[in-house]
Amino acid sequence: MRVLRWGIALLLLLQCHQPSISGGVVVMDSLGSASSSNHNKLACNLSVDVEGVGCSSTSTGNGFPSGQFWVSGSMQAGNSGATGISAHVANKGKFWNVEPGGAEDRVASLCLETGFASRQFCSAESVEEEVAETRHASSCIVTDLTSGEFSGADSAQGGHKEMEGAKREFSAEQRCSKTQQEVGPVRASGKVADEYIVRFREYQHADLHRQALEEVGQIEKWQWVERNNPASAFPTDFALLRIERSISALFVIELKKLSFVKDVSPQMRFTRALMTASEEESSAGRSGGGSDSDLEPPQGDDESVTDHSQVKPPGRLQTSMSFEDGSPCPANASLVNHGRTLLQRSQITSMFEAEKLWAKGFTGAKVKMAVFDTGVRADHPHFRNIKERTNWTNEDTLNDNLGHGTFVAGVISSQNSQCLGFAPDVEIYAFRVFTDAQVSYTSWFLDAFNYAIATKMNVLNLSIGGPDYLDSPFVEKVWEMTANNIIMVSAIGNDGPLYGTLNNPADQSDVIGVGGIDYSNHIASFSSRGMSTWELPHGYGRVKPDIVAYGREVIGSKMSTGCKSLSGTSVASPVVAGAVCLLASVVPEKERWQLLNPASMKQALLEGALRLPGPNMFEQGAGRLNLLKSFEILATYKPRVSIMPNVLDLTDCPYSWPFCRQPLYAGAMPMIFNATIINGMGVVGYIEAPPAWVPSEDMGNLLHIQFTYSDVIWPWTGFLGLHLRIKSEGSSFYGTIEGNIVFRVLSPPAKGENNPRSWECVLPLKVAVIPTPGREKRVLWDQFHSVRYPPGYIPRDSLDVHNDILDWHGDHLHTNFHGMFDSLRDAGYFVETLGSPLTCFDAAQYGTLLMVDLEDEYYDEEIEKLKEDVETGGLGLIVFADWYHVDTMVKMKFFDDNTRSWWTPATGGANIPALNDLLAPFGIAFRDTILNGVYSIGGERAHYASGTDIQRFPAGGFVHRFLFQDHSGGRSGITSSRTSVESPILGAVEAGLGRIAVYGDSNCLDSSHIMSNCYWLLKKLLDFTSHNIRDPVIFPATNELGTALGMPDSPLPMRRDDVNFSSYSLVLGQPLRCGTDAPLGVQGTRGYIQEQREPFPNVGSKIKKSKLEGFQSVPVDNEKDDWNLYDLEHRANKVRSHLVLGWWNHDELDLTTLTAIQWLVPAILCTTGFVLIISLWRVRQRKRRRARKGSSCSLSNL
């Protein structure tokens, strides 16, 4: 019996330990692949040098041939592969006429060729003369002085072609492959009858263009639209055609094939909506403050203001504004009795001490100021120097019948004592580009812009703006104007206090973008915030606005006489424009426009600006306008190059938000900053050699900076992208790193100079560094799969918001999700951004992948890797979806008169079919519904705004259901638009070693239209996915699924078959590649792609195998990787316990594992136990025999 008891005890002991032993084999097999991402991280941290990867790579990633210069406006912020607009200038060898002799032999050959000069060659000495004096300079034409060949921007195909003659001119050519030209405004005050803008490669008189088109034929199918305006006396670069609708598509294709045609685009309608008091109160309600409204009714002429709906259309619209003061000031009224505050507000000039410059004799004389607006009356008593009024509309009047243009001109140059302007002697040129109905068209603006170039305007104020930065005719014409030395000032937009709401053209780096503040030096609630969104997802936006000025309750001229108050960035913009005119008059007239240009004026404004103590850089730019300080800068100005910002202290809060909120640490995705290069030496320049990082101390060598920058700085500005990383040896470093970024910019010689101009730029940099935080504290944000307007019609996420139909705020952590970002940082999480596919990150480094409001598709490799990362690598996954309903999307379409086509949403609030593909390996799927309502969970009240619900969810998960209004009617043929249904919207489940949580609405995280935030819910979900902490609010026993939710064969939401989504996608038709925002080791590769599983590595091994595609194994010192070894051992132990307790945890085990556990393991245990029992019995028998033998010997001795 004793032997039997021993055998049973031993058998039980083996039963307890054997699964761990046998499971150890499974651990080694399954974790070999999971740990491969950890190997990749090690390889990345070692900065493996691979050909074609890194800063020195000549591969561009946007289809540009290497070995050529590309004109890059700073819209390509911070990365060479960013989606943006570029223009081809010339071959590198021809651009600077480089000879083997060295730098001193470089002679700039820039030439601004014109339709008037008819020069075959343009010498270096004539560059400045051409910039200041030529008419209709269409682009920077570059000549090789050796060969005498001309090269210029090519057509939409982007090829590099030679010029056939000296008169041939090209505008800067848009190079973005994603350009969407079928975008127009939703609202229309009159139908556009199939009108198209045909842009030509050179400037000629309209008759010559018409003759060339008539030779093409099919004259009966199209009609030349005469444009009877002042620009008709000059050569032009475009025509307006009315094409018969039946052949419009085919005829446009034929036009684009013509050698003398640059491109063809629809005639667009621009509209302006006045911002009413209720709108501004709504805006102020999000950030405090309110206002009244007093709209001045239109006067004169027959047309009156039409009642526009308060809907922001796609395309371009004039920046809205509101009339605030309920008691407009009569002409002769004194404001003294209203108190000191109102007196100050009535005199905007006194707030900036303009009278001190007037006392010195500077009043804006001999400066030509173009006001693009609603016109001005010739006999207005407030103006002493109205030089010219031009009408570009289809109305037969030059007068301002709305008051908008008069007010803008008054802020700039009024001489009325009650509402003084900054530059009373400036020459006003009033361009009436808006009708009394507040409508304008592309052709009106292009003609007016051409006329401004031809008549040599010096400063131009533009109150038009919109989110469409891919409107190539407009954007390129702005480049052309600034290249011709016109200083453009534009309102940044009235879409505040939301972030990522910059309006174009104010968001262009060559334009002075102006934001608004109140008299307490607080950012006005209506003022749009940065960053720019041109550069997403791979890069990072630029700092905008450039500068801020008072824009609330500013007193200016009324339409006929007297003064009134207005608010908006359209008010702040003429404040800066007036200051620019006044500052321009400071420079002696003989050298004024050789010294002043868009860059030098921007430098004076930004370097002189007063930084406000509260707002961050994306709210205030360089700070508030400081007229006297800018005057001092211009008084001693010498051409130079500067950087915005001029000091990069990323520890300086709140100005350096969001960078100051999260320090750097080893192993993180790069922190990207996009600085703007401002070149006051010339319209064109280039960086001579790659920038260098010069640390102040030895510890500064722990910082690695990968640079991307403009190949050609044109016009006047470029970008400098900084990708900041801490090297692996700095994983334990705590402190700050300081140093300088140094590079040199060269520009062509000015008139009278023989050598290129040169300037060494120094950008001081300071960053905070901490030891690498634990995996559970690191969250990775998926930016790559976010699609927004432009280039496509991506609808808003909340259908309850009727005044903004577009999703155009960037969907970035630092734009419309900035509140969520701050909340997670306050909770101790470190949030990093992934701008490349899901194959480009090492899952072993992160606790949770956060996917919110995503619209793009997914590569098959991404789906496979994510499954492995979650189930085997222990990665947590949180998904916040949004509405999706095809019938609703079809109803949201509209016929756009601009494009002559139906404009329909490319997807819903989120791309549910794509998300379902991604989540299919986990048995999770969303439905195509639109749900609205309010619910409570755990004492928290939440608002569900146009969300979807869960259709499938695996058994063992926890699901929460609530009663909502179904606005889709999408359940089983329900036709009612609103039906109350109980819907599952929140689910959480374990998946292998990882954990997944899904929620059907992202509006509670989006600061744009948030009604009540759900940051609390996100934190609870992160507790689960990153820390395996089960909050009883999320995991009550009553919500656990005994069986899977939904039928496995139930139909899932389908993709639209009438939309070509590849036009907007970064996935469809695109190669799988990791960008410059990915770890260094995988840049330019397909990422952490697993080809086969490998066994779990020995902890003591000195060699770790890299799973990087095409990379060799990299030796690693394990002493430098203690955290990773601990992580691998920890995960191995978790797998062992998982295999033992898998059934108790409701995990679904595969067939092989089930067979091993149910049959093979018991058989092995029984066999082992039987052998042990037999062995013990035999031992016992031997002992008994020895005992008997011993007793026999004793008896015999007796």
UniProtKB/TrEMBL annotation:
> Which residues span the membrane?
1159-1179
UniProt membrane topology term: Single-pass membrane protein
Q: Which organism is it from?
A: Sphagnum jensenii
Record keyword Signal present: yes
Signal peptide segment: 1-22
* Family annotation (Pfam families): MBTP1_N, MBTPS1_3rd, MBTPS1_4th, Peptidase_S8
| Domain called Peptidase S8/S53: residue spans | 364-611
Spell out the InterPro entries in the cross-references: MBTP1_N, MBTPS1_3rd, MBTPS1_4th, Peptidase_S8/S53_dom, Peptidase_S8/S53_dom_sf, Peptidase_S8_His-AS, Peptidase_S8_Ser-AS, Peptidase_S8_subtilisin-like
Q: Which domain of life is it from?
A: Eukaryota
UniProt keyword annotations, A-Z: Glycoprotein, Golgi apparatus, Hydrolase, Membrane, Protease, Serine protease, Signal, Transmembrane, Transmembrane helix
- UniProt family annotation: Belongs to the peptidase S8 family.
Q: What is the lineage of its organism?
A: Eukaryota, Viridiplantae, Streptophyta, Embryophyta, Bryophyta
Span of domain MBTPS1 third: 644-772
Main localization category: Golgi
Composition bias of kind Basic and acidic residues appears in 159-176
Mind telling me which PANTHER family this protein's record contains? MEMBRANE-BOUND TRANSCRIPTION FACTOR SITE-1 PROTEASE, PEPTIDASE S8
**Name of protein:** Peptidase S8/S53 domain-containing protein
The protein's matches in SUPFAM superfamilies, at most eight in alphabetical order, are given as: Subtilisin-like (SSF52743)
Query: Do you know which PROSITE patterns this protein is assigned to?
Result: SUBTILASE, SUBTILASE_HIS, SUBTILASE_SER
- Where the record annotates domain MBTPS1 fourth, the positions are 773-1037
Which intervals of the chain are annotated as region Disordered? 151-183, 276-330
